[in-house]
Amino acid sequence: MITNLNILDNATLWVAISFAIFVFLVFKPLKNMMLTSLDKKIAELKHQLEESKKLKEDADKLFTEQKKKYEETLVKIKKLNEDAIYESKIIKKRIEEDIKNSLLRKEKGFKQLSLQMELKVKEDLKNEIIKKTLIYTEFKIKKKLKKSHNSKLINESLSKLTSHLS
Asked: Are the beta carbons of 13 and 7 closer than 8 angstroms?
């Protein structure tokens, strides 16, 4: 029995037993604290993961909407471009028709003016020829005919010409 008591006097043994009791007493609360901390960290990571998934879904949804709007805008731009080309063709055709009509009106006006001028020149020329003919005829008649006969002939000719001119 004496040997048993020697074991109790060993300081190393008591430090080892104290350490084991300390570890046993501290292990459970430390384990609980670590598990609680890890559970919180896991919950926080799960929450962040859910938020990230939600943000990704929102981003995908926004991307899809923006892509759809972009495609709609491209269609609208194409339609506007086609409409502009169509309108420009209509305007060009209208302008060409206006120019053609204007040229036709001017040509018609020019023809009418030329015809009027031609008729006036003919009338003036006719009147001038008649005047010159009268003067020349009067001169010739006076020269070749007797005076009494000459007056009578001139008067008759002048009256006939005057009636033709009127």
From this structure: yes
H runs (alpha helix) in the chain: 2-8, 11-144, 147-165
Q: What is the residue range of 120's domain?
A: 33-165
pLDDT at 1: 44
- Is the alpha carbon torsion for 113, 114, 120, 121 positive or negative? positive
Q: Is residue 27 part of a domain?
A: no
Q: Is residue 1 part of a domain?
A: no
The pTM of the full predicted model, rounded to 2 decimals, is 0.43
pLDDT value for 61: 96
CA atoms within 13 A on the CB side of 6: 3
Question: Is residue 6 one of the residues assigned to a domain?
Answer: no
Q: How many domains does the chain have?
A: 1
The answer to whether residue 19 sits within a structural domain is: no
- What pLDDT digit, counting tens, does each position of 58-84 carry? 999 999 999 999 999 999 999 999 999
CB-CB contact of 154 with 163 (8 Å): no
CA distance 17 to 23: 10
